[in-house]
Write a structure and sequence with these properties.
This protein has 439 residues and is α/β, with parallel strands linked by helices. Helices cover 34% and strands 23% of the residues. The longest helix has 18 residues. The radius of gyration is 21 Å and the shape is globular.
Length: 439
């Protein structure tokens, strides 16, 4: 048994004082006391303690693009060409190094769980690895080394657009058809259950443009309803226009017709929606995964987060391409995007922003995470209240003044994983990245 004591901690949606958190040997919270003093033997946590942040959308290898895509302007589509080039260079050895570095960077910033939207399945020549699942096992090993809770979203990617086959750069992402993908997913789930039971295996359809209508319908009929399901949704206006031209439906309406719109769905980006889309996603109780720093970096636009939340959807946050790996900046960017789009402040309260970066992603990762509560994992991040950025802030509003530079300690499953930006097992993050890129 381990006990942590904090002068302030985020409990039941607000700042509580004199908080003692007791955890079992397997890292689960067994008791929380408030308005209490620090006892002998308690581990004192100096600062505001938040639940570990939940990263609901990641493409690990996209981290290779940071700081390398800005020279010539361009668009999402030109950015995508560099992404394809980097994906073509990956193999299981290099991917494990890269993913270990990015997951360690997440942990040091305060993320304790991540949903990895994974589609680099096969060898560069599109042949399956022998033995199978080499890339997926590399990601599982990377997450174990970094100590982050991994939800591996095996992604169905079958076409380059409506009625178009995969392009050469996409061939290693694909399977023959929906039946082949479902069979490979089943095999992967069995393999990881044996070798990496700590990994939750979920599923994703890359987008409506990348999965034909008949395949969407088969997946809707046959996919295990108990596992998380994700999709890139309406990230670009061109996707919407192509979908309407091909099917007469918006992407959201097509998902609904295919049996894929439900409370287990996590819709990533959801930037360009009409009123009916917003109502449908809200009525389904879907999770909307906003990735504000990526959406800004790519010039995608500002999604209707406030309207989606008001309609009944859950709001979660992700780092997507990892242009920034910082849960506090993602939360702030969510509110700032709303302010810029509406001309009004306070579109999301500080409490709603904390919820988005913590428990908002719980359904997306298929875990009971993101809250300081009995029976939940003891995942904690500690924010310095007296830094150059946070000194003088109301503790309840630190989410709008702090950054990952102010995260002094990160505890996952009751075990300390990072101290002031340095991973306790893997060392300084910059060193990890230099080794990952130069090896």
């Amino acid at each position: 048994m381990t006990a942590f004591w904090a002068e302030r901690a985020w409990v039941e949606g607000d700042v509580a004082h004199g908080v003692r958190i007791t955890a079992s040997a397997d890292g689960v919270i067994t008791q929380i006391d408030t308005d209490t003093g620090c006892c002998d033997g308690d581990e004192r946590l100096d600062g505001l303690v938040l639940p570990g942040a939940v990263n609901a959308h990641s493409h690990a290898f996209h981290r290779l693009l940071r700081g390398r895509t800005h020279a010539d302007g361009g668009s999402f589509w030109t950015w995508r060409e560099l992404m394809y080039r980097e994906s073509a260079r990956l193999d299981p050895v290099s991917y494990e190094r890269i993913a270990t570095a990015v997951y360690a960077e997440m942990v040091a910033a305060g993320w304790s769980a991540v949903a990895e939207f994974h589609y680099v399945h096969h060898a560069p020549d599109a042949r399956p690895y022998d033995p199978p699942h080499a890339m997926e096992l590399a990601l599982a090993r990377a997450a174990r080394a970094a100590g982050i809770r991994l939800t591996l979203l095996d992604t169905c990617y079958l076409s380059s657009g409506f009625g178009s086959p995969l392009e050469p750069a996409q061939r290693r992402f694909g399977d023959a058809d929906a039946a082949a993908w479902l069979a490979r997913l089943s095999s992967l789930r069995s393999r990881l259950a044996e070798e990496h039971p700590e990994v939750v295996v979920g599923a994703a359809v890359h987008s409506v443009r990348a999965v034909p209508v008949d395949a969407l319908e088969r997946i809707g009929a046959e996919l295990d309803p108990a596992i998380p399901l994700h999709v890139h949704l309406s990230e670009q206006p061109g996707e919407n226009e192509a979908c309407v031209a091909a099917t007469g439906l918006t992407p959201t309406a097509l998902l609904a017709r295919s049996g894929l719109l439900s409370s287990r769905l996590s819709a990533v980006h959801a930037t360009h929606l009409d009123d009916d889309d917003i109502a449908a996603l809200g009525a389904a109780g879907a999770t909307i995964v906003m990735c504000p720093t990526t959406e800004a970096d790519l010039g995608d636009g500002v999604g209707p987060a406030r309207r989606l939340a008001d309609a009944g959807a859950r709001i979660a946050l992700g780092t997507d391409q990892h242009a920034v790996v910082d849960p506090l900046l993602e939360a702030r960017a969510l509110e700032h995007g709303e302010r810029l789009a509406s001309g009004r402040r306070g579109r999301f309260s500080p409490a709603e922003l904390v919820a988005a970066l913590t428990r908002g992603g719980a359904e997306a990762v298929g875990r009971r995470v993101g809250a300081l509560a009995v029976g939940r994992p003891c995942d904690l991040l500690v924010v310095d209240e007296a830094s150059a950025r946070t000194a003088g802030s109301d503790p309840g509003q630190l989410v709008l003044s702090a950054t990952a530079q102010d995260v002094t300690r990160v505890i996952i499953g009751g075990r300390e994983r990072a101290i002031r930006g340095v991973h306790t097992d893997l060392g300084p993050i910059g060193d990890l990245w230099r080794k990952a890129v130069l090896a």
